[in-house]
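Repro:
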Amino acid sequence: MVQMRADVLVVGGGLGGVAAALAAARAGRSVILTEEFDWLGGQLTSQAVPPDEHSWIEQFGATASYRALRTGIRDYYRRHYPLTERSRAWSDLNPGAGWVSRVCHEPRVAVAVIEQMLAPFLGSGRLRVLQPYRPVAAQTDGDRVVGVTVAHRDRDERIDLVAPYVLDATETGELLPLTGTEYVTGFESQADTGEPSAPADAQPMNMQAVSVCFALDHVDGDHTIERPANYDFWRDYKPDFWGDRLLSWRSPHPRTLEIVERSFTPNPDDDPLAVNADQRLNPGDGNLWTFRRIAARRNFTDGAYDSDITLVNWPMIDYFEGPVIDVPNASWHLSKARELSYSVLYWMQTEAPRPDGGTGFPGLRLRGDVTGSRDGLAQAPYIRESRRIRAEYTVVEQDLSLAVRGEHGAVAYPDSIGVGMYRIDLHPSTGGDNYIDVGSCPFEIPLGALIPQRVENLLPAGKNIGTTHITNGSYRLHPVEWNVGEVAGLLADFCLARGESPRAVRGTPRLLADFQDRLTAAGVELRWPQVAGY
């Protein structure tokens, strides 16, 4: 079997993995980065989820390299796309004029910018990217990970990867069971965490819904897909708490649980510059078409786009029939999640109520070319909740809940290694729970949440840090995942340079101060200015 070695091994090429590889390579380390799908970027690209970001993202509250990614996306549009002069001059260009983010964009643009950011290190040979490979085994020696074996997705080929530091940036924490690293899944109990929103008993198999997203436009003609085999089941499916069939415009409001009806108007003739994508003021999901729109045709010269393009990550595609982690039938559940997404599309094309009193939008066209897939859907499912390490410090609801902390703000951690902000936003779960949506204070990321209780050289670099089922709802979004990955890469470099362990860095005031200085020099923000949560 082929063996490859590096200073730092990053398994998983989502946002956290890319940020980790970039940070370690910039620090002069040799890096191997693996990814099982065709695109690097994870939730931003292969999962086709436009950025979910806080209200101050244009001013502060993210690392410098994450800002470079966002700036790079806007610059890519200005260099390569036929923008109108008005849109080209828009300093905070929002290509899709979506309401969910100030920089809604097509996934492949983020792929191109990520590749540009990594290109110098690929050219020098400091970084090697292995695609499409997934981890299948790991070798350990006591409390250390010795190596990881990855297998090619499409052919019978395996590679042994060896590095003194191994970073798990997979979407579901795949290395944790492979390495024997202690972890949790699902709901912790209130007795364990003291969280106001936690259940009395732990529910390890109760996890957030996954979603298989897809892109649509709306053009002349009939673009109705073949009727899905189990369409009748999904058309008639009515969860107890939903207030209607899942395939409808009606669903619970995440914050109030009131049953509300959303509108759906393809290609509204709206002004892109009039969109104010600030979820503090407006969640933006009133018209589903513009909610996660990723290309607003009025941003581009006449005729460049026949239609807007919108990204479907809407309530009705949430699949909560069963978990996809630590179950023998995970692939079956993922196939059912894809079937649900096709059924939602078919329902919209054939039966969905229209504002004019008719039914169906046959002009809706599935845009697999936008998501880079043969089957028309996103390449990968959107995974909201990962396995999470049993960490030296676990972030709990009362650390950041606006209802608990109020004017005091989130807990200030002495070992802060970054910042983030998002409401505690939990989608319906596999245990039959409705939305849990709790206001949040702008929060910090503690180094203790990145350090496993036992294992010495494995670091989480994504959604698998020491949060709970509840606080994962705030820590799972794009800027925080990037921040966590970037810090994991810098921590591996710092430990290699100093001959110290991550545990020693956190536990030794002098080392912690030096590491935090290193983060600040790299453009990682450790504290928030005085701002109020929402």
